[in-house]
Amino acid sequence: MHSIRGMRGMAVAPHALAAQSALAVLREGGNALEAMIAAAATIAVVYPHMNSIGGDSFWLVSVPGKEPGAIDACGAAAAAASIDWYRERGIEESIPFRGGAAANTVAGTVSGWGAAYKLSRRALRGRMPLARLFEDAIHYAERGIPVTAGQALATASKKSELAGQPGFEETFLVGGEPPIKGSVFVQKRLGSVLRRIARMGTEDFYRGELARSIAGDLQRAGSPLAPGDLEAHRAQLRDPLALAHSAGTLYNMPPPTQGLVSLLILGILDRLDVRRTGPAGADFVHLCAEATKAAFRLRDRYITDPAYMTVDPRELLVPERIREIAAGIQRQRAAPWGASRPPADTVWMGVVDGRGRAVSFIQSIYHEFGAGIVLGDSGINWQNRGCSFALDPAALNALKPRRKPFHTLNPALARLKDGRIMVYGTMGGDGQPQTQCAVFTRIVVFGMDPQSAINAPRWLLGRTWGLPSDSLKLESRFEGGVLKTLGEWGHEVEILAPYDDAVGHAGCIIRDANGVLEGGADPRSDGTVASF
């Protein structure tokens, strides 16, 4: 497989139809923000087991000649969502993963679309109407999509777990059974909602008639969310975190996301001069795993809703701090490793237009099918992001009304010293920072092209989509000597399939200083690179 190249615009997504929706907008003269709105709307329809307009999203945006910016479209907990609210319902230990009690945070992604749309019109002179940007998504919802193997498998594997959740069976099953790969899957209610948002604007989701319908359905499903929670929500324009790397400046999302982790890992490896290891040996994987452990320890100590942070995350990215962390890593001995966070699910997508404006974007409902509830009037599958809150008031991410939940989501962007711009990312909970590390390092440090870097065998320390164990997992395409050496150095090694979904669905686009675009999509996904 070879990287795809283009000049006038490029999009990458884990589902080909989403990438093609973005490309169609670019071909019609749309900018990168408009193209990403189209891709985001489409992916929410064509990847229904992994995405929905009932989730959250984060954006990194790069415009030549300006500092990169970010959009935080993460919803906060309901005003009624308190530890006492759960105790009154007999829930003492932890918030359940499924059901109305899990649907305790506002879905922010539609507000992110709205913020991006306003930014496009104000800063990039975007002129495309929402009706055009939603055109593909509406068509796929009302007329149907071809069921992927991933959708069929995910529905079958979660059928018993989600049985009885409001709206799940009538929405995601066909005649009581999971849809068959290649069959046509229709979501008419969702199509009607997208038509309404295109006509009324994204504000209707939070402060209009649609918002009242959503809130009513949520409360009937047992959620603590109320109309006031939707009304209070706004997407926020943020400054991204930045890391000074030997190859350039790297950007990622600030808390409540784990973007700090992704930057820390790359900063540590840069300090350790990882270029001496090669891109696939035991020493490379070992240093990446050890850098991940060090970064995760800081994540689990500090990262939460920024309103509750006890440190400025930028202080953890200063060279002195990174040098100190790197000095504690042993080159041929694995540090102890405890339990990681529960698995998560999401999609990453990237767009770069012909003028070099770039978007790195991530959108999620957390677990497969989110909370598992589907709202009756609108057909929206609501996220369960708030199950990451703790019911222990002393915990770092203790549940409090209107508090933002911790997010694994973190889109990545880099401006390199050689003039290249790079957007990259992946799905996969704890695996997101690790796959970002693999893709970035293999491309920037070892000189691989995007497609080769994404194809190459990957690893995963800890948990992710579909895998609850905390071992160091490696795809079987690594040479046997690598696995043996890692075991000798103290890693608990587990072997995955040659191309395993567990290591994420990565993507990348690079724009060279001469304007040439080059991109790669993950063969582990249903995605593609679309360019012209």
List keywords for this structure.
seven-stranded antiparallel beta sheet; alpha+beta; 2 domains; 19 strands; Glutamine Phosphoribosylpyrophosphate, subunit 1, domain 1; 532 residues; single chain
Helix content: 25-40%
Number of beta-strand segments: 19
Name the structural class: alpha+beta
> Average pLDDT, to the nearest integer?
95
SSE blueprint:
Blueprint: E1 4-6, E2 9-13, H1 16-27, H2 32-46, E3 56-62, E4 69-73, H3 83-87, H4 109-123, H5 130-133, H6 135-143, E5 145-146, H7 149-162, H8 168-172, E6 184-185, H9 188-200, H10 204-207, H11 209-220, H12 227-232, E7 236-238, E8 241-245, E9 248-252, H13 259-271, H14 282-302, H15 319-327, E10 345-353, E11 358-366, E12 412-416, E13 421-425, H16 431-445, H17 450-455, E14 459-461, E15 472-475, H18 480-488, E16 493-496, E17 507-511, E18 517-521, E19 528-531
Parallel strand pairs: 15-16
Antiparallel strand pairs: 1-18, 2-10, 2-19, 3-4, 3-11, 4-7, 5-6, 8-9, 9-12, 10-11, 12-13, 13-17, 14-15, 17-18
Helix pairs in contact: 1-2, 2-4, 2-6, 6-9, 13-14, 13-15, 13-16, 14-18
